[in-house]
Amino acid sequence: MLQGEVRLLEQERARLMREVKLKTELEEGYAKRGAKQAAAIKDSAMKIATLEGSLGQEASEACLGGCAKKEVATESLGHLKGGLGQVRWVSECFV
């Protein structure tokens, strides 16, 4: 009688240990993926900031060269800033 109960408890323990191991592996995978995403987001944000600076300089130079170039540069800068906002939103979700 007791041996049967011990066997059942050992089986239950083994099942629970497998579940814990599986969940631990899944969590480690999620953590690694999150770290990679955070690094990619940070890299993208740095690239966007660099491009914004370059585009701002181009917009300033375009002002000297004519209003049409300035309008194009200003519009492009607006698109880049919108993209940066999206990157920041995504980074807040995953970091």
In summary, what is this structure?
With 95 residues, the chain is mostly helical. It has helices at 2-65, 67-94. 97% of the residues lie in helices and 0% in strands.
String of helices and strands: HH
Distance between the termini: 53 Å
Largest sheet: none
Number of E-type strands: 0
* Rg of Cα set: 27 Å
**Overall mean pLDDT:** 80
Low-confidence stretches: none
Supply the number of structural domains.
1
Question: Which labels suit this protein?
Answer:
95 residues, mainly alpha, single chain
Task: Tell me about this structure.
The protein has 95 residues and is an all-alpha fold. The chain is rod-shaped, with a radius of gyration of 27 Å. The two termini are 53 Å apart. The model has no long low-confidence stretch (mean pLDDT 80).
Q: Helices, strands, pairings?
A:
Elements: H1 2-65, H2 67-94
Helix pairs in contact: 1-2
